[in-house]
Amino acid sequence: MSRELGTLVIVVLKARNLPDKHSFYKQDVYAQVALQGITKKTPVEAKGGQHPVWDEELRVPIYEGKGKDGMIMKVSCWSKEPRSEDLVGEGELDITETLQTGEFDDWVPLGVNGVMRGDLYLEMTFYAAGPPPALSRRPSKMNPSDRLSRPASVTPSTSSQG
């Protein structure tokens, strides 16, 4: 069995500019993270629409000996529909540097079949194995006034499309 290197604490903060196929109501959205065979999900944000905010902490143990593929984290956003779950967008992030520096705060681009489908903001902290630290969140690098805010509402244009 592989030795545990430590714990990666992933805060799935929010997403921006997600496509929303609904016209009359906002989609219910959740995010998913998959790393080294472990998949974790945020709760569904009802009516999260194009700019959902979760601020959800997910913890994933990191093991050695998983090779290069074990350092690729797959992220995705999903729209929870009454009878299905539709992929909104997905992306990948190499966590090698995060394990070395101990932290990561940035937007991860999402897409489907080469088409951009928004971004997901992640704050990650890696805690190396050893005596258990008091795991508490470190301060975010994102401006506090922007951290949990959604973009200002965009008023629909009055021009007709056709």
UniProtKB/TrEMBL annotation:
<feature type="domain" description="C2">
    <location>
        <begin position="1"/>
        <end position="108"/>
    </location>
</feature>
<protein>
    <recommendedName>
        <fullName>C2 domain-containing protein</fullName>
    </recommendedName>
</protein>
<dbReference type="Pfam" id="PF00168">
    <property type="entry name" value="C2"/>
</dbReference>
<dbReference type="InterPro" id="IPR035892">
    <property type="entry name" value="C2_domain_sf"/>
</dbReference>
<dbReference type="InterPro" id="IPR000008">
    <property type="entry name" value="C2_dom"/>
</dbReference>
<feature type="region of interest" description="Disordered">
    <location>
        <begin position="132"/>
        <end position="162"/>
    </location>
</feature>
<feature type="compositionally biased region" description="Polar residues">
    <location>
        <begin position="152"/>
        <end position="162"/>
    </location>
</feature>
<dbReference type="InterPro" id="IPR052981">
    <property type="entry name" value="Ingression_C2_domain"/>
</dbReference>
